[in-house]
Amino acid sequence: MAPIFVASASMRLIGALTLHTRQIILIAALVFVAALIGSLSRPTGFLAAFWPANAVLAGLLLRNVLLSRISVLLAAAAGYTAAAIVVGDQLGPASVMTLANIIGAATVAAVLGTGSAQDRTLSRPQGVVALLMASIAGSASGAMVGGLAMVDLVSGSYFDGWSAWFAAELVNYLALMPVVLTWPAEGIRIGRPGSQAAPIAALAAAVALSLIVPHPVAIVFPVPALIWCALSLPMVATSILVMLYAGLAMLGLKLGFFTYGLGSASTMMVHLGIALVALGPVMVASANVERRRQMERLLRMAQHDGLTDALTRGAFTEESRTLWDALVSEHAPVAVLLVDADHFKQINDTHGHAGGDRVLVAVATAIKTSIRQGDLFGRIGGEEFALVLPRVSLREAAAVAERIRHAVADLTVALDGDDAQNVTVSIGLAFSAGGAPPIVEMISLADRAMYDAKRAGRNRVEVYQVPPEEMQGH
């Protein structure tokens, strides 16, 4: 019973803590775990082969908006110190290293935090450049203090200690910060394994080859595979693979599992080489994200009307035909609506094209708020809009049409000066219970119904139901 009592009491204690206190404890725990992982990668007498704690801390400083930076730094100091105690480090040198770690991470966060949100998520190449500059600044500032602790470890001058700290930290930041910055808040969604297996397998083979070939050029063997990954995988997946490669390379170098054939050449140069290898794929992945975003923006511009954001006539026609084929094969019910603004020419003549544009925007907005998700909505003429309502009953389609009519009739569009314009629409509805005739015929029937609404006095809905004998028999 005692363990159950202790666990229950602990849960009650945690629940009684304020949100601020729980966040502080969580931050200290994250830094502690990350520092402990780094300490376990540290051979005796050497700097850690891979040190994720500083990148984690810099990410917490950048992504945490509820706590002050002083609170985060104090929590991190507690995490660093606890990890040092667990692994048996002397508190004197450990305190100097903790101060260096905090200075470096805070500098990275301060420099990178001055950029835009896109830069902080590496969603454009400028963000990767900003990350490089921030990493150099953080590594250099941290090394100013860390170099003091490194003098005894490297058995050399202060500059040797500064250089060793700088190079190792630069690799850590460039290899780990992309993961921290691009990790989605909702978690990672795993795609189809087949689409990701080939570049990952190529990377594994390239890394394995680099471990067994004792030649300086071996360090770049994984670069083509990493670039393939950057072009094929999501940004966060590429970042994880870069992190794994850099971690393996650093650990293998520290433990002597492999050599790049550099003999007595400075380890610092090897670290810098790994840093540059890590930077390249991240830059490619970021450029690929930017390219996809620009392509999506251009595609949207091509498919959507610039004034009303409805589908253009061409895009509406193409998408409706694709949808139509599926509906006919399912023998599903469908409705087509034609919506036309009443007396629009008079509005244009009285208030000019700018006033007419305001009216069209207001009408389009009212339509979009009245339709269902999955309904197609396009602008096919000056003041004429078309809709396809798939898998809908006649009653539901008529209800949507009436909802649109009422939403528009309730509008009062502000124009220049004190003028205001009330608007109405006439709507033609063509409905087929299944096996509908071709889309062009349905649009023609809806158009005929819409003109019937105009002749009947406007601001109304007229319905044409396709007789069963006119439906396609498949």
What does this structure look like?
Helix 3 packs across helix 5 (about 90-110). The protein is elongated, with a radius of gyration of 32 Å. Helices cover about 65% and strands about 10% of the residues. The longest helix is centred in the middle third of the chain and has 37 residues, at about 265-305. The strands form two sheets. It has a five-stranded mixed sheet with strand order 2-3-1-6-7, with helices on both faces. A two-stranded antiparallel ribbon has the order 4-5. The chain is α+β, with helices and mostly antiparallel strands and about 475 residues long. The model is unreliable at about 1-5, about 15 and about 260-265 (pLDDT under 50).
Features of this protein?
5-stranded mixed sheet, elongated, 474 residues, alpha+beta, two-stranded antiparallel sheet
DSSP strand count: 7
- The shape, in one word, is elongated
Uncertain parts = 1-7, 13-17, 260-265
- Cα gyration radius (Å): 32 Å
Q: DSSP strand (E) fraction?
A: 5-15%
* Distance between the ends: 71 Å
Residue share in helix? 55-70%
Elements, N to C (H/E): HHHHHHHHHHHHHEHEEHEEEHE
Class from secondary-structure proportions: alpha+beta
Mean pLDDT: 83
Major beta sheet summary: 5 strands, mixed
Please give the structural blueprint:
Layout: H1 2-16, H2 19-40, H3 53-63, H4 69-87, H5 91-112, H6 117-120, H7 125-154, H8 158-182, H9 193-212, H10 223-232, H11 235-255, H12 267-303, H13 313-330, E1 334-341, H14 344-368, E2 376-379, E3 384-390, H15 394-409, E4 412-414, E5 420-422, E6 425-432, H16 439-455, E7 461-465
Parallel strand pairs: 6-7
Antiparallel strand pairs: 1-3, 1-6, 2-3, 4-5
Helix pairs in contact: 2-3, 2-4, 3-4, 3-5, 3-8, 4-5, 5-7, 7-8, 7-12, 8-11, 8-12, 9-10, 10-12, 11-12, 14-15
